[in-house]
Amino acid sequence: MELTSLPIHQLHDLMVKKEISCLELTRAYLDRISQIEERIKAFLTVTAEEALEQARKIDEQRARGEKLSPLAGIPVAVKDDICTAGIKTTCASKILYNYIPPVDATVVKKLKEAGSIIVGKSNMDEFSMGSSTENSAFYPTRNPFDYDRAPGGSSGGSAAAVAAGEAAFALGSDTGGGIRQPAAFCGVIGLKPTYGRVSRSGLISHASSLDQIGPFTSDVRDLAQILNVICGPDSQDSISAQVDVPDFTQSLTVDIKGLRIGLPREYFGVGLDSRIRAQIQEAAYKLEELGAICEEVSLPHTEYAVTAHYIISCAEASSNLARYDGVRYGLRVDTEDVLSMFKKTRAQGFGSEVKRRIMLGTLNLSAFYYDTYYSEALKVRTLNRHDFARAFEKYDCLLTPASLTTAFKLGEKAEDPLAMYQSNVCTLPANLAGLPAMSLPFGTIEGMPVGLQLIARHFDEETLLKVGYALEQINFS
Amino acid sequence: MSKYEAVIGLEVHVELKTNTKLYCGCSTAFGKEPNTQVCPVCLGLPGSTGVLNRKAVELATKAGLALNCEIETYTWFDRKNYYYPDLPKGYQISQVFRPIAHNGYLDIEVDGRNKRIHIRRAHLEEDPGKLTHSGSSITTSHSSCVDYNRSGIPLIEIVSEPEISSGAEAKAYLEKLKAILEYAGVSDVKMEQGSLRCDANVSVRPLGTSTLGTKTEIKNMNSFRAVERAIEYEIERQIEVLEDGGEIIQETRGWDENKGITVAMRNKENPDYRCFMDQEIAHIELTPEWIEGVRATLPELPDARRKRLIEEHGLPAYDAEIITSSLDLAEFFDAVYAEFPDAKTISNWIMGELLRLLNARNMELFEAKVTPKYFAKLLELIKKGTISNKIGKEVFEQMFETGQDPERIVKDKGLVQISDEGQLASILTEVIAKNPKSVADFQSGKEQALGFLVGQVMKATKGQANPGLVNSMLRKMLSQNNSG
């Protein structure tokens, strides 16, 4: 079997048993990248030299007999909106085409401490605005299952890299489904932790009240290992939650007897591919066989979530992206005066979707429209939270499709921003409520992966892992 | 009497005395090389996340309490969005919707009348960077430099109700505000270093009416005196416009210190800052116990201290007002009093000599070398009659410059007052012999002549003769001569 198709825990065992070296492993991944990257385009930057250097260090540690941590020597792709010291971090935008951060994001620091090998920075929709990675200012990424299809987005490069064996795992960010929808499209696991569970320090903001970093993996055990490393409070991020981090590998058990799982009917309505519906029902049936109780539940305000999310995320983005003015870093278009420098820099630096959202967000926050749009959206957000809170009084976990369709064709929705936004209808409510949610592959339709989504209570990633692990066992059997 | 009244509100930005910035660990020290006290957070680099400075919250709370405000137990930060090169994030983190302190007041006294000025709100916010232009403004310059050392320095903005009616009241308000914040230890309140800045909103209306006139906002005032002058000018200007049948335009006007006028800067309507709640800085939750804990650390404030000087030390209100107007001075007074408990004498010397020299040399008290201990010693020397009042002033000047012990100055310069009657008698005899006309004048009843003779004795002794003693000895000797 190819090294690049093995899960992390098996790679770890091989290194511990000295059957492979870290350098060999890293080379295997870099080879895989040079072999397939031309077709996938998962990366904006490949950091081969740095990766090999790191790999040698890990091998030295191994030679000295030091104990390897579970992620030591494991190649990872990092989404290009997560800062990496000394390595270009562009958010797939022309406006940051040359930006090199002086410091690592906290998650990157943690991965480096754990010994992970960064093989590159993965492609994305510009500033995470999009659901197909077609909004990258540089090039789109292709779905490894079908090169004519989108990998999803915004973290499409990360999902595709893991699916194509270009990285053993990846980090992405999720504002409305940016991890879970591409995970579903690319047949990998993607988890958006609880808001505040993973430090946002070093994550380039899109919509601060919704953004969350999370991992892509090929199995649930790997996911648990990564969460063990990246979760936890951070003194650099005052929103990061002061909540203890459990050992997530303890949740890897098929014992889900008596677990109550709700299937919110609003997620199974118009627009859902009936074959996906059938897959989810199949999953629910299998979970019941393992002793879980699956019932229909209602989250009545779901239909307003897309609008509310769009208003809030655009509003926050319009402010978060104001710093790109050409004064200090990134693109600067020199002109005769400062105002036209701002205007021309931003006009040339941002792509059309980013501009659309900045304009909408600016409108939403303007004195005249604030009450009509922004305040109302905040109220919907509260109702949305209450919906979930009520559901979680009775259920431990919710089961939904991760996407209404399997991966769509490149170009299919590129000209229709609203249709593109709708493709996150299943994922964005969890962002509004700050809940942990996971996308897990469950079968295929016409060769394309189907993703189901699990949503749990705040800080209960353990239930996601437990149910996910059970489903994974079903999948394999 | 004017047919108009002025309505004035002041917005004062005060830099809080913290060692580090509001959302990062960079130093707040003044006057360092440009862009040497910066980090990803205060430069607004992509991905940077700020963490609130606890000390700044404490100082803002303290300031609010010192200004008799109510303190919010739950508050947060909001963003004020606008583009300017000195604003690294494209927004300022401020408190728009719920300021940490509100509904306070301070009392001022102008021309013997007391007035209470209410404080609408005091909120925390970050300072932007500082721009330097090659020309006179950003639009007319070939290039501009920006220094982000100041970016992220914690400020409180204190907004008064529009209850101030004159430039003099505005000045009194600022002086009191400065004193209170200085006493409370929340700020250095140095206008020349920019740690206190003031904008004034000025409008006028016909006496007896209650609707507010159109206001202008006055900026660029670099001293309290400038605030007073700018407001007085602006009131007159607005009245003139109205009297001529014109209309006041809502605009921002800059004070031109040299010309003594205000000049229109920009007449944009209030810009839309698209304010909304910030999502990166954690919200502030204060318990009533914590707030009371901060209150307990408040020192005696200017009003209380002034009252103490009047009631316990018997100082006149005027003296007490001046001495308590700055914490340094009040502390100096107390320190001198501890060694030389004669309040009025101390006050006379502080107001007469100490302040005179400080003003003449344009110095702050902390720059003067004289210590309270030696100040007290000097007063003691005068009281004991070792030196005269006049010599005392001379000694004081030297103490002021050098910080020397007055006893030593007196000794070194041989300034000890001559109170020895034998030593004086010979000098007096000589003066009497040399001035027969004055002697005759005095003896024929002209009292002023005695003054002249005393003056001659002082001259002959280089001011060292004890003038009281000289006076009485002269009277005695001349009456003996007369009868003889």
What does this structure look like?
The complex is a heterodimer of chains A (477) and B (484). Chain A is globular. In chain A, 40% of the residues lie in helices and 13% in strands. Chain A starts with 7 loop residues before the first helix and ends with a helix. The relative contact order of chain A is 0.13. In chain A, helix 5 runs parallel beside helix 6 and helix 7 packs antiparallel against helix 15. Chain A has an eleven-stranded mixed beta sheet, sandwiched between helices. Chain B is of the alpha+beta class. Chain B has three domains: 207 residues, no CATH class; 114 residues, no CATH class; 63 residues, Arc Repressor Mutant, subunit A. Chain B contains 15 helices and 16 strands. In chain B, helix 3 links the parallel strand 12 and strand 13. Chain B is elongated, with a radius of gyration of 30 Å. The model of chain B has no long low-confidence stretch (mean pLDDT 92). At the A-B interface, helix 9 of A face loops of B.
List the keywords.
heterodimer, A: 477 residues, alpha/beta, Amidase signature (AS) enzymes, B: 484 residues, Arc Repressor Mutant, subunit A, 9-stranded mixed sheet, 3-stranded antiparallel sheet, 16 strands, 19% strand
